[in-house]
Structures are given as structure tokens and as C-alpha cells.
Amino acid sequence: MKFFLDTANVREIEQAVEMGVLDGVTTNPTLLAKEGRDPVQVLKEICKLVDGPVNAEVISTDSEGMLKEAHRWADLSDNIVVKIPMTREGMKAVRRLSEEDIPTNVTLVFSPSQALIAAKAGADYVSPFVGRLDDRSEDGMELVSKIIQIFDNYGVETEVIVASIRHPMHVVEAALMGADIATMPYAVLEKLFEHPLTDVGLVQFLKDWEKLQR
Ligand code: G3P
Q1: Which of 5, 54, 164 to mutate to test the pocket of ligand 1 (most atoms within 8 A of CB)?
Q2: Domain ranges, ordered by start, for the chain
Q3: Contacts (Cβ under 8 Å, ≥6 apart) of 90
Q4: Could you say which of 3.30.9.10, 3.20.20.70, 3.40.30.10, 3.40.50.2300 is the CATH number of the domain covering 2-213?
């Protein structure tokens, strides 16, 4: 399974690149707004850092506006993937972009039928939002499992990005289900490395080695 960071923070992306575990980045308007800088400049910097897809989202709600924005994002760099919201206008834009070989990620997916529609429109990726479903007492990971089953049934090549991840178990469950990608906040990526027994074990190894040096 590929690991994407769900962030527009360049420092976090640099750190994940250094750790050698980063396969791509997803941003959205909220994440870019958090940075408080020119979003075009931020995306340019991210595209240079990342050897893999970098997702930039459109904010227009009509397909013509989405297409204009998509072309502007795609002109930034070869590794841009354009994020399009799961709406009727969005799917018109996805169809056109797929004919132009501009990769798309359909975002704000909350049901299996939406994922199927996005795939039929020609999306390269779909992003089910698991955390936001869990927040409403619905089962986000069950949605992912259904989407994977539907795509497997028909040999659909659209990749499943598990998004709106809140904790490491979302990542582990996504891997168990065979999801293609998990996109996570930097804090969740850090937690994937951790186990208290690793820390205790390391302290003990170092203590024992120290004894040998006396
Ligand atoms: O970028 C899309 C998605 O991952 C957003 O997550 O935490 O705002 O629900 P969140």
C-alpha cells in the first residue's frame, strides 16, 4: 500500500521524504488555507519535493470552471493530480480530463455508488472519507471494503485512496483490505513508527552494551 501525506505543509513533507516512506501528497483548500501563503507557490514547492502524485483541488462548482482550474494546476508540474468533488458537474469535468489524459482524484466520496460513478466517469483515484463517516457514527472502513469489492468484481483500475484518516488503525485496516493508498496527516504517519516495547527494548540494549564497555 502506498503512503500519501494529507498536508500542504512543506516541512512535514520534507521529513516524510527523508524517512523514505512517502509515495505522494494530497492537499485540499482547507489544508492550503492553513499554510497562509500563496497556494500556487506552496504547490510548486511540494511538486519539486515529491517523487509521486501531488493532488491539487479545484474550487469551482461548474464543470467549465473546474476544467479551467484543472488546466492551470496541471500546467504546474507533471506530477499534479487534479482533485474534483463528487458532483454531477464534477463528473462532467472528470470525463473531459480523462480524455485529455489529465489524472483526477474524485474527492468527498461517502457511498459505494458515488465511487462507482466516479470510476465510470474515468477517475484515476477515488477518495472515500473514513474519519468523517466515523464522526457521524457510520462505518468509514466498511465503505472502503465495499468499494474495493465492487472495483474487484469488475476489474476497475481506479485506485482507492483511503482519506480523512484519524489514527493508525485506519491505516492498518486499509492495508488489510488491500486499499491502494492511505493518505494521512503527519501525526498519524509518526504514530505508525511507534511502539513502547521498541523504546524499552532499545534502552535495555544500550544499557547492557554500556556494561560491557566498563
Ligand atoms: O484531504 C481529504 C481528507 O483527507 C480530509 O480529511 O480530516 O478533513 O476529514 P479530514
Answers
A1: 164
A2: 2-213
A3: 63, 66, 84, 106
A4: 3.20.20.70
